[in-house]
Write a structure and sequence with these properties.
The structure is a homodimer of 480-residue chains.
Chain A lengths: L9 H26 L5 H6 L1 H16 L2 H10 L2 H10 L5 H7 L2 H9 L3 H9 L3 H7 L5 H9 L3 H12 L5 H4 L6 E2 L5 H9 L10 E5 L5 E6 H6 L6 H4 L13 H11 L3 E5 L5 E6 H19 L12 H28 L1 H6 L2 H29 L8 H31 L2 H31 L8 H25 L1
Parallel strand pairs in A: 1-2
Antiparallel strand pairs in A: 2-3, 4-5
C-alpha cells in the first residue's frame, strides 16, 4: 500500500509533466551546445549541470506512481519518451508497460532488449503477463514461461486462452478463500498471516475442499459480526457469479447495476477460477467506449498522438476508402441527372441541403436506437412502436424544416414549384432516414452483428444518395 | 446486504423483462375482452385469471433488485410502465426513482401524488435526495425537508448547492471515522457496534477532534495487522483527498488512475465533509460518455425511447437548426458558382466527393486530438508538432486519394484538366481539414471552452463550404 502516498490530483500530474518537459528542454540546450561544438563533448560529460538535470529527473520519476509515469510517457514525443524511459528504475518497467496505451507500449518495447523485457515481465502477476503477451517477442515469452511455477504456468495458459472481450480477460487470480466450517475469529487470525491483502478485496470466497464456491463473505459483514459466529451462518450463499467465457460486457453491466467491487469467477462445475474487480471493469468500460468513439470517426485504434505520418495514414485509410465508395455512388446518382441540372442549375446548389439534413436526422435516430439496444431495452417486438414514433418525428421535422427550406428556395429563386419540390424532397428524405435508422440496427442485431459498427456510414450513404435521387428525381418529374 | 441474493446476470434480467411483457400481454387480452364487452366488467374483477396475473407480476417485482426494476420500467411503453410502477411496493419507490434515467423518472413522478413522493423520498439518504430534488415539486421538497434532522438538513443543503459536475455531486456522507490514538483492537470493537458498514467501505477515515482528516486506515491493513498496534502507526498519513468544488472529472481520473474504491472529501480546512465511492464514479463516467455520444449526434439529452413524437422533436431540433444554417451557407457557396456549373455540369456531380472526404478526414483529426486533450496530453506547446504531423497525413492522403479520384474524374469525363483540378482540390481540402482539425480544439481550449462540444459540426461546416469553394473555384479558374 506504499503507493498510496504517491497519489496525485490530475492537475498535479500535469504540473509534473510540465516540469519533466522543462528539465528535458534544459537538457536539450546543453546537448545542443555540444552538438554545435560550442562546448567540447568530454567536458559535458563532467558538467555538473547536465548530471544535475538527469539526477533531478530520475528522482522525480522515482516519486511518481506508475500510472503517472505512463501518462507522462504518452504525452512526450518519441525521442524524449525513450530518454525518460531509460531513466525509469528497471523494477518498475513491468507495471508501467501495463499502464501505457497499446500504441505507446509498442514504442517502448521496441526500445528494450530481450533481457530487459524478461526482467520487466517477471515482476508481474500471471493475469498481467497475459495482457502484455501479445506485444512481446515469442522468445521473451518462452523465457518468462520457464521462470514460472507449475501453478502459474497453468494460470498464464488459461489467461492467454480467453477471448479479449471475455470475462476471462478481465479476471485475476488473487481471490482469498476460506472454509465455511470455521469461526470468524479463525478467519480473522488467518488474514493476519498475510503481509497484505490483494487490492480490491471486499469479500472472501467461501469454498469447499474441491475449491467449489459455496458463498462469499463480505469484509463488511466479517467486521460487524460477533467473531464466534460460523462463516456458514453469515456468508451470502448465492452470490452473483461470472464464468470466464461470458462476455466482458455482461460483467460490466452487473458491476454497474449492482455497484460491485469484486465478483467470483467459476467454471462449469462451480469451481472458483478467479475474480473480477471493479478497477478492471472501469478500464474495460473506458476502453470500449473509447474504441467505439474512435471507430465512429473511422480510426482503427487509439493513435499515439506522436505517431509517424505513415502509421497514422495506415490507421485511417480504411474508413476513408469506404467513404470514397459511398461518395462515388452519390456522385453517380447526381451524374444520372446531369441533364436536369444543366437546365435548372439551382438544383445543384439546393441538393446538398436535402442530403445533409437527412444524414443528421438519420444519425440522431440511429444513435438513440443503438444506445437503447446496447442497454438491452429494445426487443424485436418493440420495432413497430419505434418505427411509428420515428416516422412521426420525421414527418413533423419534414413539415417544419421542409417548409422553411421550401420558403428559402422560393425566396432565392422565385419559383413556387421549386419550393414545393424542396419541401417534398426534405420530408421524404427524412422519412427514409427514419426507416433506415430503425431498420439497420435491428437487422444487424437479428443477423448477429454488433448494431453500432458502421451504422453511421451506412445511414449517411443512404441519405446522401437517397437525398440526391429524391430531390433531383422530383425536380425532373415536376419542374422540367 | 440482503440485496445480494437478488443479483442477476444481464441475460437473466432480459428474461425477466420478457416474462413481465408476457404477463402484461395476457393481462391485456383479458382487459380487451372486457373492453369489447365479450366479458362483463364485474365478472372480470372476480376473475381468478386476472388476479393471478397481477399476483404473479407483483411477486416477480418483489424479488427483483431496484436496478433491475428500473431497467424493466425503461423498456416498457408508457401505459404498461405506469401499470407496473403501481404494482411495485411503495417502500422501494425511492431507490427505483434513483436508478431510472432522467426521462423515465419524469414520467414516473408525474404519475405520483405528493404524498407518495414524500414517502418515497424519505427512504433515501440525503445525498440521494439531492439527486432527485431537481425533479420533485417544491411542496414535496418542503415536506421532506421538515422531516429531516438538523444535521441531515445541513447535509441536504450542502449536497444541493454543489454544481452538477463537481465532486460534491458525487459525494455521500457515509464516511466511517476513527481516532488515531486508539488501538486496532478498539477499532474492531467499535466496528462491531454497527449493524452493517456503508457499502464500499474499503477504508476508515482517521480524524482529530475537529473532524480534520489525519489519514486513512484501509480495511486491508486493519485486517492483516496485529490488533495491539495503534491506528496512528499504520494509517496512511497523506492520502489523496478531493474537495467538493473540484470537477467531477478530476475525481474520475484519480479513481481510474489509482484504482480507488473510495476517497475522502475535505474542505479548505481539511475537515472531512464526506467521501466519493467508485460506484458513483462509474455512473459518472458512463453518464458523461453517454452525454458526449448523444451530443455528438445532436441529441440534447437521453431520450426515453418511448417518448412522444413531440418530446423527441424538441430534444432534436437545436442540432438540426444549426445544421440547416451550415448547409445553407454551403448551398450559397455553390450558388455563387452557378455560372460555372451551367457550363460544365460534371462539377455538380463531383463536388460532393471533395466535400465529403474532407469532412471525414477532418473528423478523424479532431476526434484524435480532442481525445488526447481530454486525457491532458496535449499542451499548447505540442500544437506545432501535431499540426506538422496532421498536414503530413493530409498530404499523403491527398496524393493517394486525390490521384485516384483525379483518375476517376478523367475516366468518367475524359478530361485531363478536370482530373487535375479534382486532385488539387482534394489535396487542398484535406489540408484545410487538417489545419482546422488541429486549430479549433486548441483554440477552444485556450479560450476556456470544452474542446469537444460542436467540434464535429464546425469541421464539417468548414470542409463542406471550403470543399465546394476550392473545387468550384479551381474549376472556374482553370477549366472555363
Amino acid at each position: 500500500m506504499s503507493d498510496i502516498e504517491d497519489l496525485r490530483q490530475s492537475e498535479d500530474v500535469q504540473q509534473e509533466l510540465r516540469e519533466v518537459q522543462e528539465l528535458l528542454a534544459r537538457h536539450r540546450v546543453v546537448e545542443g551546445l555540444v552538438h554545435r561544438q560550442e562546448m567540447p563533448r568530454h567536458e559535458l560529460v563532467e558538467t555538473l549541470l547536465h548530471k544535475q538535470h538527469i539526477a533531478e529527473l530520475r528522482a522525480k520519476l522515482d516519486r511518481l506512481h506508475p500510472a503517472d509515469i505512463a501518462f507522462i510517457l504518452e504525452a512526450l514525443p518519441l525521442d524524449e519518451r525513450l530518454f525518460v524511459w531509460d531513466l525509469v528504475k528497471a523494477d518498475r518497467d513491468g507495471e508501467i508497460l501495463l499502464e501505457v496505451s497499446d500504441a505507446v507500449r509498442e514504442t517502448l518495447i521496441e526500445a528494450m532488449d530481450s533481457h530487459e523485457l524478461v526482467a520487466a515481465t517477471e515482476q508481474l502477476d500471471t493475469d498481467e503477463i497475459a495482457d502484455l503477451a501479445p506485444d512481446l517477442p515469442s522468445e521473451v515469452m518462452q523465457d518468462v514461461f520457464r521462470a514460472l511455477s507449475v501453478e502459474e504456468r497453468e494460470q498464464l495458459r488459461a489467461a492467454m486462452s480467453y477471448d479479449e472481450d471475455s470475462v476471462g480477460a478481465l479476471m485475476d487470480f488473487e481471490a482469498v478463500t476460506v472454509r465455511e466450517d470455521v469461526t470468524l475469529e479463525a478467519v480473522l487470525r488467518y488474514l493476519r498471516r498475510f503481509d497484505e491483502l490483494p487490492d480490491h478485496t471486499d469479500q472472501l470466497f467461501v469454498v469447499d475442499r474441491d475449491e467449489r464456491l459455496e458463498g462469499v463473505l463480505p469484509l463488511n459483514l466479517l467486521l460487524v459480526t460477533d467473531p464466534d459466529e460460523m462463516v456458514s451462518n453469515i456468508m451470502v450463499a448465492e452470490p452473483l457469479t461470472l464464468e470466464p467465457d461470458e462476455k466482458a460486457q455482461t460483467a460490466a453491466q452487473a458491476f454497474e447495476r449492482y455497484d460491485l467491487v469484486s465478483a467470483p469467477v467459476v467454471d462449469k462445475d462451480r469451481k472458483l477460477v478467479g475474480r473480477v474487480t471493479v478497477n478492471a471493469v472501469v478500464d474495460y468500460i473506458r476502453e470500449s467506449t473509447e474504441t467505439e468513439q474512435l471507430s465512429r470517426a473511422g480510426l482503427r485504434e487509439g493513435e499515439d498522438i506522436f505517431a509517424s505520418v505513415w502509421d497514422s495514414v495506415k490507421n485511417r485509410w480504411a474508413w476513408l476508402a469506404v467513404n470514397l465508395v459511398t461518395a462515388f455512388v452519390a456522385s453517380r446518382v447526381i451524374g444520372a441527372f446531369e441533364g436536369s441540372i444543366e437546365k435548372l442549375v439551382a438544383l445543384a446548389a439546393l441538393m446538398p441541403i436535402v442530403a445533409g439534413i437527412g444524414g443528421n436526422s438519420g444519425n440522431q435516430t440511429i444513435t438513440m436506437i443503438v444506445r437503447a439496444m446496447a442497454l438491452g431495452q429494445v426487443q424485436q417486438e418493440s420495432a413497430r412502436v419505434l418505427l411509428r414514433k420515428e416516422i412521426g418525428v420525421a414527418m413533423v421535422n419534414g413539415l417544419i424544416w421542409g417548409s422553411l427550406l421550401g420558403f428559402v428556395a422560393w425566396w432565392l429563386y422565385r419559383s413556387v414549384p421549386l419550393g414545393l419540390v424542396m419541401t417534398a424532397a426534405m420530408s421524404l428524405n427524412l422519412m427514409v432516414a427514419a426507416m433506415v435508422g430503425v431498420a439497420v440496427p435491428l437487422l444487424r442485431q437479428r443477423l448477429g452483428y454488433d448494431p453500432a459498427i458502421g451504422s453511421s456510414v451506412m445511414i449517411t450513404a443512404v441519405t446522401d444518395s437517397g437525398g440526391f435521387f429524391i430531390f433531383l428525381g422530383l425536380a425532373t418529374l415536376f419542374l422540367l
